[in-house]
Automatic annotation (TrEMBL), chains A, B:
This is Succinyl-diaminopimelate desuccinylase. Its EC number is 3.5.1.18. Residues 171-268 form the Peptidase M20 dimerisation domain. The keyword Metal-binding applies. GO terms for biological process: diaminopimelate biosynthetic process; L-arginine biosynthetic process; lysine biosynthetic process via diaminopimelate. Homodimer.
Length: 358, 358
């Protein structure tokens, strides 16, 4: 593997790190490449934990910001290696991870290498296992082993926001809704009870569900309740005795985790519901002074973030956090995932201006 | 291994051959034991094809009957070796294969050895790979290499019928009903279309479906339409773009295969339906003169067979066929599979009376 060249342009670094596949649970090669490029830099103190890499300046500034990005992606679907494409005259980098969120990581890597004397101290974090259950996240692991590394006055997550500032985030809950039956040979189906047929009302309630949009501190958070998986079946000639529907509820930051659980249990009243995964949202948090200065530096009005991101994790630790990164979030996880080259450069300029302003 | 003793009682032969495991694809040891016991008998002409053994008398009788049984079982689940058990004072042989269908094979082996001068010519068939996809069946192989061996005026399959005569069998069809959607990140579900939600009407139609009972030549065939598997889902945070429901339609022998397909397509009108597996049923065939004599010899009124069995194969070749064997079909494949000793003896008496009546 060629070494990462952090003197290249941030779009070129984007292509380089997208072409090192790093689907969740397979981040090792990319983490190694990042560590090899960052570890020799004398202005950074580097700590590795699994496939998470933390790099800190320690110049004794009064304020510290944390800037973080995950290095894993959802599964590749014929969209690696990356390509340069032009749509309506605009150049893009196309491929898995370009939006979510290696273009953001590329900007961070470049600035980490170049800003040897920033105006504030910076803690850079590149972490693994963001696209899977929160318990597997590199940040969960790091928060347990080195909570001190999360200290800061403000945090920025480089998740895709099309170069705008997105405040807070929705919460997310995954639950398993189960139906039960009685096995029997399908030639004598009347002896058994079909658990898959029993799931018909579960799917009907999901299909009929009308999600709400909730205003929090002036930003509009749009919710959603969806089946993300379904499974059931024993063999081609057996009446199944179990069907499991996995649902995902994305909820506004005004709902507590407990309220979100109660809502989902209410929707599926009469069915067995097991909560599999739960992460509360984060309120926008844009009233902090560093946040205000950041908004002025990068320009533009803040918007709500729909996706759950690790800003919620910082928010819970008392560190105000926003999302700011290149790429249209609507194209995250999309097979046609692609990021405008100009947006990568714009985010680089925005972050650089803020981090160097004295 | 001790040689099979075909002078033992049919219950003792049942225990002996159940204690030689013969899960599908591992029938060799049992086929060898059968061949060693049968091949030396001077009144039988023996042909072996893989683990299928055919033994024929050839005394020049005007009529020939085919009597067949499969020697494989579904997987063992702690229920081999067999045990003698007594329930409510009635003696049973307990263990894998006792019902489906080694007790039936035991009776056949004993009669094959003892009936040196039957009233009709007999073709005995003991075959492998019945409990798996039809393409692997020993009978499929034999029908290709030696179709002449299937010639006969009437056929009896020793599948478990609790010692009653079960005529014909239902057909079976498996189909995949598919719904499609558009993938998106579940945080912005309104961008995508949820294929699992789109399957709600598929499950609703299954749950509402009222199967018919259809009278064919005086026997009542009960049908059934069931989901036997469902799957869908990409990841916990992705709106799924595909959901597949596998359905199994068990249909009366009065419906042709084409009519069964049309019925299933009609039920799921508006959805993509792929036929995965199809085997027509068999009419009872009890109006044949040999069948009438058989019914008189064994006594009792015939019933319909619900499960698909190899009688359909003989029926398609123009050989009327019925199921007649010891064991409760509801206990087939059951971990508590067990056969009443009295039923084994009763089936032996019934077959012997019919095959020796002049």
């Amino acid at each position: 593997m060629r070494a990462l060249d952090l003197t290249a342009s941030s779009p070129d670094i984007t292509r380089a790190i997208c072409d090192i596949p790093s689907v969740s649970d397979h981040e090792g090669a990319l983490a190694d490449a990042i560590e090899r490029a960052i570890a020799p830099l004398p202005h950074l103190e580097v700590h590795r934990d699994g496939d998470t890499i933390v790099a800190r300046t320690d110049a004794g500034h009064a304020q510290r910001v944390v800037i973080a990005g995950h290095i894993d992606t959802v599964p590749i679907n014929g969209n690696v290696p990356t390509r340069d494409v032009t749509i309506d005259g605009e150049p893009y980098i196309w491929g898995r991870g370009t939006v979510d969120m290696k273009a953001g990581v590329a900007v961070q890597l470049k600035l980490a290498a170049e800003l040897v004397d920033p105006a504030v101290d910076i803690t850079w974090m590149w972490y693994d296992h963001e696209e899977v259950a929160a318990e597997h996240s590199g940040l969960t692991r790091l928060a347990a082993s080195r909570p001190d590394l999360f200290a800061g006055d403000f945090a920025i997550l480089g998740e895709p926001t099309a170069g705008l500032v997105e405040g807070g985030c929705n919460g997310t809950l995954r639950a398993i809704v189960r139906t039960h039956g009685v096995r029997a040979h399908s030639a004598r189906s009347w002896i058994g009870e079909n658990a898959i047929h029993a799931a018909a009302p579960v799917l009907a309630r999901l299909a009929e569900y009308r999600p709400r949009t909730i205003s929090v501190e002036g930003l509009e958070y749009r919710e959603g309740l969806n089946a993300v998986a379904i499974s059931g079946g024993v063999a081609g000639n057996v009446i199944p005795d179990l069907c499991e529907v996995q649902v995902n509820f994305r909820f506004a930051p005004s709902r507590s985790e407990e309220e979100a659980v109660a809502h989902v249990r209410g929707v599926f009243e009469g069915f067995e519901v097991e909560i599999a995964d739960l992460a509360g949202g984060a309120r926008p948090g844009l009233d902090a002074p560093l946040a205000q200065r950041f908004l002025q530096a990068v320009g533009g009005a803040p918007r709500p973030k729909y996706g759950w991101t690790d800003v919620a994790r910082f928010s819970r630790l008392g560190v105000p956090a926003v999302n700011y990164g290149p790429g249209d979030p609507l194209l995250a996880h999309h097979d046609e995932e692609r990021v405008p080259v100009a947006q990568i450069e714009e985010v680089e300029r925005g972050l650089r201006a803020w981090l160097t302003a004295r």
